[in-house]
């Protein structure tokens, strides 16, 4: 009788442990599902878009996601070389033999008055930059009042490396080459550095002096 009672108590205890473990597993799964659902409601998704036309080009970054993108790092490459600011790109294209004459004409138009509508606008991006859902930020805009040979602009390759995070700490890395079809952002554990792309100046008209060579 005592053996039977002991075996019954033993089986009841095992069943209680199994039920507790099943309950804990269910709660863990539900918590994870809820966490994933919450993360999905705040996921940012950055993309880089480029517009080339006969008057110049525009490079902008857009948050197509549903949550804010907290930019932790931004790096710019021009012709395969790491640079700090958009001014380095302006120097590269203004030295190009196909573009130099156009920049000089645009410079003369700026000196002649606002009717020329020749402008270069640059924006910084880096740590502390935040892009809200559906927000676009123009990083570079070159607008010239003359026909620009697009092949000359396109041949100066620009690369952007962006690392950004969501509000819950999930992070992504994006490598984009303006003017090309780019891959999706890649999940990363964290953003390794805190680089920034500088504009060097606030939005300005064309510089008063261009490189001579």
Written account of the structure:
The chain has helices at 2-40, 86-95, 97-112, 150-154, and strands at 46-53, 56-63, 69-78, 81-83, 119-122, 130-131, 136-143, 158-165, 171-176, 186-188, 204-205. It has 213 residues and is α+β, with helices and mostly antiparallel strands. It has 2 domains: 1-31; 46-205, no CATH class. The strands form 2 sheets. Strands 3, 4, 6, 8, 9 and 10 form a 6-stranded antiparallel beta sheet that branches. The protein has a 5-stranded antiparallel beta sheet with strand order 1-2-7-5-11. It is rod-shaped and about 100 Å long. The model is unreliable at 201-213 (pLDDT under 50).
What is this entry, summarized?
The chain has 213 residues and is α+β, with helices and mostly antiparallel strands.
* Number of H/I helices: 4
Low-confidence stretches: 201-213
Average pLDDT figure? 79
Distance between the termini: 104 Å
> Which percent range describes the beta-strand content?
25-35%
Oligomer: single chain
Strand segment tally:
11
Q: Could you say which overall geometry the principal axes of the C-alpha atoms support?
A: rod-shaped
Structural class: alpha+beta
- Characterize the biggest β-sheet: 6 strands, antiparallel
Task: Evaluate the radius of gyration.
Answer: 27 Å
Helicity, as a percent range: 25-40%
**Total discrete domains:** 2
Order of helices and strands: HEEEEHHEEEHEEEE
